[in-house]
Amino acid sequence: MSVTSQPSDSAQDSAKQSASPAHSEFLQLNTLTEHPPFDSENETPTEQQDGYTPSRSVTPSPFQDHVDVQPNEPTPTIPPECPICGKKFTRAQERDRHLESYLPHSIHCPFQDCPWTGRRRWDLKTHWEKKHPKTGQILGREKNKIYDPKEFVKSIVDGTSHLEVARSALLKVRERLIELGKVDVGANVLGRKLDIEN
């Protein structure tokens, strides 16, 4: 007795007749139809044949723009450096903190007659505990800030002259200290003349 892998045509016909309607519908959908061959190798099917459209036939690739990169080679890192003095740093945060040293102090002591100014909240807290321990006042967060040095540091990093940026920051310091009543219009602050409009 021989076993054949392909059923005969008569066996398929009898299976189609005895099967349920759903099964026969599946067999009809599963049957491939033969298409006429193309005239030449370069010819492609038209939209009328099988609903073929070139845009639907090509799967889009997420790698459209190929960049020739050697994955095993380490990427050289350029250490951030100060655009003013050229000092190199391991992190951009260290460089930005260094750039703040070219700007006027950004924090002042809220005590009315105290001329102290600085750059760090920790320095203000230390100053407050040493110089004004018995005042009973609690330090606020934003009341002590004269200006935000980050925007000025970003300007220096972006290429603006540090002298121009320092001048803008000094004008902000002047406006804020006059507003607080801590300094007169023509006074010097931090060894710099505040009257810099001339």
Automatic annotation (TrEMBL):
Residues 1-22 have a biased composition (Low complexity). Coiled coil: none annotated. Residues 80-110 form the C2H2-type domain. Residues 1-81 are annotated as: Disordered. Residues 43-62 have a biased composition (Polar residues). It comes from Russula ochroleuca. InterPro entries: Znf_C2H2_type (IPR013087). This is C2H2-type domain-containing protein. GO terms for molecular function: zinc ion binding.
